[in-house]
Amino acid sequence: MIDVRGLRRAYPGAAGRGPVQALAGLDLHVPEGSFTSVIGPSGCGKSTLLRAVAGLEDPDDGEVLVCGRPPGAAAADKEIGLVPQTPALLPWLTVRGNVELPARVNRAADRRRSRGGAAVQRGDAAEVLREVGLGQVLDRYPHELSGGMQQRVALARAVAMRPRVLLLDEPFSAVDEITREALRRQLLALWEHVRTTVLFVTHSVREAVVLSDTVVVMAGPPGRVVDVVDVGLPRPRAGADLGGPAMHAVEDRLRRELAAAWAAGTPDGAPAGFPETPAAPSAPEPPGGLR
Ligand SMILES: Nc1ncnc2c1ncn2[C@@H]1O[C@H](COP(=O)(O)OP(=O)(O)OP(=O)(O)O)[C@@H](O)[C@H]1O
Looking at the keywords, is Membrane present (predicted)? Predict the structure, then answer.
């Protein structure tokens, strides 16, 4: 569903400095209907990768295909949904209005293209908002919502278009830990319902393991894939009592990989105090385990 081959992307450097090589010949394959997370140290190129898959960054070299087509073409047909780090809702539209907007814009574009032909039918905004627990606030405005609720609106807005590919860039990074856990649960339940192809950028090992089929570990800059880890936990996971030894083993492996990736991406290696030995095994999880 997503194929990235030899992707290179450099940004111009500040005055007197050379360009920043953000991605250095990166390869990635995301199968249809799978949930894939990308983790890696800050600055290793995760967002650049996501933007390239969304069609928002042109590769300097290499190829990106989404649904077998260049990302720009897939995005134009609304086959790609993007949930950014900050929800970017329109303040003059209600919750329902924000979620309906992409479908309205799309219908208008369809009508222009087909001179009044049938509009594309996508998911119902109110139904998707109910799925993310916002059925009671359809007529509220963004400033009346908490940060976590706004992020759920952004998620509902992307999912309502029923995209074949959903891209999420650290969507829960700006909310507190309790809200974050609730959002993870809702994303998991929603995804186990719609089963669209997901590429999810996160800094949280726990989040990556709980949500994903596969976790891609990146190092950099320059950004590259250093490991692809099969999570292998059974589904459905929404509402399941996770947190057993299998889950801790995957988490510990990823923490070791991240420590190595962090050191590899730092010009002088790890700073004093950075753990050189593998992280201690994870503490056992309380029942429910979605932390
Ligand atoms: N517009 C830009 N201009 C110059 N350099 C950039 C630009 N965007 C990103 N970079 C650089 O490219 C590299 C990769 O950035 P990117 O944002 O993709 O990393 P990231 O892994 O998503 O980071 P984080 O986890 O902190 O969000 C970094 O070194 C960053 O400084």
Answer: no
